[in-house]
Backbone:
């Protein structure tokens, strides 16, 4: 599926709508340059899952947990830090797991996942492509 978002509000709505289709244990991997809307998308997913708590990027923490959601961010992580995390345990937690900067941990990602690619079309407009991976 491919769609276009012309604002952060529209990106949140796309994510809220997607959240209705997600099941516990799903892994959602976000790919895209800085500023393309990945964290905004996670905020929309969280809202769609009924999470009332404010969702912030866990860039310096790597992980934030909410009642139905685990939010990972690997922007500031090194290979040594990543190897120290038990990602398989996180992916098997039964929660929906969302990974920002998933390209940085590609070799650790489960084969069954949802990949979402964010690309700039212009200053306000983003192309969002959603791809289901099963193997």
Residues:
């Amino acid at each position: 599926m491919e769609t276009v978002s012309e604002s952060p509000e529209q990106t949140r709505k796309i994510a809220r709508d997607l959240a209705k289709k997600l099941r516990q244990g799903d892994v959602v991997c976000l790919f895209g340059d800085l500023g393309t809307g990945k964290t905004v998308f996670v905020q929309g997913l969280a809202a769609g899952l009924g999470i009332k708590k404010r969702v912030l990027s866990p860039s310096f923490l790597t992980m934030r947990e909410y009642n139905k959601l685990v939010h990972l961010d690997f922007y500031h992580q090194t290979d040594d830090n990543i190897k120290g995390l038990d990602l398989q345990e996180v992916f098997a937690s039964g929660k929906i797991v969302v990974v920002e900067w998933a390209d940085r941990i590609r070799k650790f990602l489960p084969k069954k996942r949802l990949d979402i690619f964010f690309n700039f079309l212009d200053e306000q407009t983003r192309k969002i492509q959603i791809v289901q991976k099963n193997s």
Summary: The domain at 2-133 is CATH 3.40.50.300 (Rossmann fold).
